[in-house]
Amino acid sequence: MSNPAALPKIAWIGLGIMGSPMAENLLKAGYSVTGFTLEQDKLDRLAAAGGAAAGSIADAVKDADVIITMVPASPQVEAISYGENGILENAKSGALIIDMSSITPQTSIDLAKNAAAKGIRVIDAPVSGGEAGAIEAVLSIMVGGEQADFDEALPVLEALGKVIVLCGPHGSGQTVKAANQLIVAVNIQACAEAVVFLEKSGVNLEAALDVLNGGLAGSTVLTRKKANFLNRDFKPGFRIDLHHKDMGIVTDAARNVGAALPVGAVVAQLVASLRAQGDGGLDHSALLRAVERLSGAQI
Question: Which residues, including other chains, have CB under 8 Å from residue 94's CB and lie 6 or more apart?
């Protein structure tokens, strides 16, 4: 390992389901990480892993070379970035912000422009892989921004993920992430429909999913979510509430560029219906519950 003194000092804002294990992976890689988040238990967890807990965003970012943000949506990115207590007012000139949240492409474009006025660089770097990918440091990371900033961020991102690709200018990472969320939601929905069909047909579900996953119907989604379907275990790795937000991003962005998403639109409504049924806090594999309800199950 290189001399830790030579590694950039990192501030981490947002220590949720994804952020906590990701920050811990940076600590394991030898980086110094100062974190801020709203929940005290998450700050305690970071400190226990060898990081430093800050009392505010300003405290967390003031000495940081690299500032990584991982919060739920565009409003939170704006809240932590702007204003006198935000990142842009308190980070040093020359700092690099890596925003790993999944937000609208326009929010990323605006943030990069506003940061540039203060001599602060930004890349958008949303991820795919869910909680398991975050823990295992095998996330797929899609990046938007300048090549030089991407090159500087790459060693840090390599401690968090496996497939790391610069997709284009600011906002491009978010556009690719939106496409990712479209594919994942439609894939989970197809799997959920197959599960209900198989069970109602009296087939051994575990055996069926094993053989399906070995052929063209196989997918990372089915591999990761098979146990959720079999055990009806919907403990959140990625919440329906967040996928609902993402389906809004992709349907809106697609409309803006003139792309039709007929199946995506249907799945977006099914995700919305789950939230209306009170299932927003469950894992997105709970799309199975919507299919079960439509098929006559009393849930």
Answer: 119, 120, 121
pTM of the full structure = 0.94
| C-alpha to C-alpha distance for 10 and 65, rounded to whole angstroms | 6
| DSSP-assigned states of every residue in 135-183 | HHT-EEEEEES-HHHHHHHHHHHHTTEEEEEEEESTTHHHHHHHHHHHH
Please, what is the angle between helix 74-81 and helix 105-116, to 10°?
Answer: 10
Separation between Cα atoms, residue 231 and residue 249, nearest integer Å: 31
d(CA 253, CA 103): 11
Count CA within 13 A, CB hemisphere, residue 149: 26
**Dihedral sign from CA coordinates of 95, 99, 105, 111:** negative
The per-residue pLDDT for range 143-171, each reduced to its tens digit, is 999 999 999 999 999 999 999 999 999 99
Q: Please report the beta strands in the chain, taking only residues with DSSP state E, as ranges in sequence order.
A: 10-13, 33-36, 52-53, 66-69, 96-99, 121-124, 127-128, 139-144, 161-168
Task: Please list the residues that pair with 143 across neighbouring strands.
Answer: 166
Provide DSSP, 31-50: --EEEE-S-HHHHHHHHHTT
CA distance 209 to 207: 6
Which residues carry out catalysis? 177
